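The freezer alarm interrupted the setup, so I double-checked each line after restarting. Inputs confirmed:
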Amino acid sequence: MGTLKLLQGNEACAEGALYAGCTFFAGYPITPSTEVAEYLARRLPLIGGAFLQMEDEIAAMAAVIGGSLAGAKTLTATSGPGFSLKQENLGFGMLCEVPCVIVDVMRGGPSTGVPTGPSQSDIMQCKWGTHGDHPVICLTPAYVQEIFSETVRAFNLAEKYRTPVIIAFDEIVGHMREKIEIPDKGVIPIENRRRPTCPPSEYMPFDETKGDVPPVADFFSGYRQHITGLNHASDGFPVNASPRIHTDEQRLIRKVEGNRKDIIKYETVMLDDAEVAVFAYGVSGRSGKNAVELAREAGIKAGLFRPLTIWPFPEEEVAALASRVKAIIVPELSLGQIVYEVERCAKGRCPVEGIFRVDGDPITPEQILAKIKEVK
Amino acid sequence: MSFNYDQYIRGGKLPHIWCPGCTYGIVFKSLLRAVDTLKIPKDDIALVSGIGCASRLPGYIDWNTLHTTHGRALPFATGLKMARPDKKVMVVSGDGDATAIGGNHFIHACRRNIDITVIVLNNFIYGMTGGQHSPTTPIGHFATTMPYGNVDPNFNIPDLAKGAGASWVGRGTAYHVPALDKLIIEAMNHKGLSVLEIINACPTTHGRRNKFKSPTDMLLWMKDTALPITAFDKLPPEKTAGKFPTGVLFKKEAPEFCETYFALAERLKKQKEKGA
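Predicted 3D structure, all chains:
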């Protein structure tokens, strides 16, 4: 038995980071994510870890990349406007394959929007926020316990695939308090990045012959290296010639897309015999679960597909689902973002109906139930 | 005996990208001589840069080197330093990179007084993008984005650094090379945030639009315009008009950020152990 705690989602995120071995946080105050920083400001010094409140969001993203290059497991937490500001350096982290974790506690937008209200309207920014083609791993927990375990998983995926990983949840789950169990050390396995075993003179930081995820050496470890945000050759130095850029960017995509089975995770509720499916994540997934239970009580065969990994998108799973249900309902706290991804994968095999809301309140189970009754 | 630069230069990475007449090569060599004097092992030092001509310098040096995004070298360097406070971290930047797009990071790194040496190569122009005016382009000078002469007021980089809280501030030039070697050594020896502005020349995008007939003219301008701070301070204002002071312009004792933070962490850890 681990330790039982009553924690807010944001606090559980900080606990998950510590469990995963995070020793470095850099951030900037922003509602509704600030509690992640506040919790780690108290805890990190006690274990000799580094806590930095930087001058802005851009600097915080830069600092976690710097910390990671020196070998630390690093975290930053932010929300909509701050997430927008981080995008350029997030792209640097992706191209330079720097393991780190970025938490985006989603609030209403665009602009300052509704700082204290929930939203799910950053989900396409998670995928396409930075310029250029790049891999994205993005996790979408819905419960406080799940924020803890998905934060651990985010660090593990970042280390395993040598890439920044985003955790996107909404203000409601971030601020909600629930009982959680923090497992004893060792119960959840912890991944550490693969480091080189070759002599330093032979080390190349982006050596594709070592696999899609080449080993990564820490700065100051004797493996002197050059890291640049320019497209680079295996040895890390700039290159702007064909075909290296194309093949290397394809490798970046492949290391994530090619490991979908390992990365994609979802929960289903009463989906096996369902005639109507609800596809929802985060707080909308919680309402979705309640809605399908209400539908079953009313004698309607409804089921829930709740992704915990939203990027890479569970394409095959949604395609298979679309082949066997009458309709898929997509409730989301935006004016329609992830619904188009569901439509893309459904390929017209069944109707896809969105329920959208951006007034600062969650979509209720009753709203979803009404839609289920409409399409059944 | 001539100095062996090859021991620090990465094999196969030269020639560099800098134009003929550019003075960055002079600074590059001065930096290598300084580090050789300080006997810092190559594995124990990192050089971080942002974007621009100056930011290409790390690629040529056989250390741990990091070429980041425009203006952001300092927060990347701050991350490296906080993760490994036992190691030496340096930043090389340009006037636009450090004081325009990176201005916020620059003043806050100074305020924080974290142990990083910042070298700002001021060539008064955005060189890599072809000659747009920067926060240090002199008033009246021509730039592609000031085609009628610059009307945008300037930053004085040492004043900015001092005002923001840097604990060591100096200025050298690419003309006064022996003095520059000494300044780099002193800046790197300083514990805390040190800022060394180095006056440089960009003949290609600045000089030839502004009546400098050759790169040599730009070096001679440095020779005629720089005054050691000791001489500068003794002269009345009418004699120093149009001149700039060089040397160690300011230094003070101030708590270094990593030391303060990790001392606190150590204290808390001991308290906790006692309590438990």
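Quick read of the result. The mean pLDDT of chain A is 97.
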